[in-house]
Amino acid sequence: MSRLEELKTRIKEALPGLECVIGWQKGYDPLHNTPLFMRTDADVDKLEWGPLNVHNPAVYLPTFTGKKVGVVVKGCDSRSVVELLQENLINRDNVVIFGMPCTGVIDLSKVKARLAGAGVSAGTVTAVTDDGKTVSVTAGGQTTAMPLAEVRADKCGRCQFPNAVLADAYVGDPIAPAAPAAAADADLAALDAMSVPERMAFWRYHMERCIRCYACRNACPMCVCRDHCIAQSREPHWLTQDDTATEKLMFQVVHALHLAGRCTECGECQRACPMDIPVLALKKHLNRTIRDLFDYQAGVDPQAIPPLLQFKLEEDNIKERSW
Amino acid sequence: MPVLTGKELRIVGFLCNWCSYGGADTAGVGRFGQPTDLRIIRVPCSGRIDPLFIAKTLINGADGVLVSGCHPRDCHYAEGNFYARRRLEVLKRFLPILGIDPGRFDYTWVSASEGQRWQKVVTVFTEQIHALGPAPRFDAVSADMLAKAAAGALGQGGNRVAA
Asked: What is the CATH number of domain B2-138?
């Protein structure tokens, strides 16, 4: 029995006690998987596992408040679940976590760029296969082999949690995290290399491309305010509806600062961005700051208190200015 | 105001009602000379200050932001300034990644009796902002910097290839 079949068996065993189990299924073409909400055994048979499972299913958990649901997670998704537990946004008794070791997911933008380089359109994909190391995409009658290490999401290059950090049912043997790839933090290094005025120009350029669709927010498992997001509230009126780069930057700042000490770097904001704006870099910088200041990483320990929800009388790493 | 155009910069101060606002008052009662660039907003506690207040102020064109609250352990509400300290330090380190000079924002603690300390804080901070000059505006980034950004020529390689 393959691991996926074993996982399906485990889910079917647990399904009678659950509202649904959230996972992934084949989407509208072979290149895209989409979220799957399993309510019957027939649904469970649609479950997929592999590098096309790019979505973070933890984003749906807070919408099931009061109901008992299951969720299938990759390592990064499990950190989001743990962070939700840490903040009491979901109840541990009401969530059943299914995990499997993950060897990385693809970055669709990179795959599309490869296909464009091979002269075929991503709209003509007829088959996708993977053997754990290479993803082969058949489009327009020709097959392009892509090493997973080259088309995987940037987050996978620095992944330290390929296994679920918390799971009720774990299928397969946990795998050891790989050494971080050299280019994994290229986005942050590039920003670090810029002068402060250059960074302003960088964000101005990218914010002008932003179409303010809020996909980054909607894909974010930690953005739990939903209909009460201050980006859309009139009272207080944090943001106007003006289509200016300043308003759009302010929204990104709102998103980033609301994630300070909470972001698990699942990369959903950047993956969901239709304009490929590197919004994750803001959160990565914040996480680096949090790590330096408080020696803390979000979504690892369900019992840990997030750093901005506690304090020390004498802070270890905050050196205040003397006037 | 027209007389001061070009001489005065816009500095916004968020002051705790129980300490620093009183400290500023003490400085005034004591007739300590102070720069006039600072515009004060009174808040109930430094813990009331959402870092977004400061981010929004700076992004929308203020030249500097100063936050002042009660000394640690002296908070009127026992622990508001401890939370504030963590948030404000995170914000201070976050600003440069946006392209805002971290010197444009500072936070400190001034008690209601410390009129002289308040005078010093305002003077030093105002001098610091004047040394930095008027804040570069996000909506007025020069065309050639934007062209450089578009070309990915800002010394960066992390910009993803648009598909």
From this structure: 3.40.50
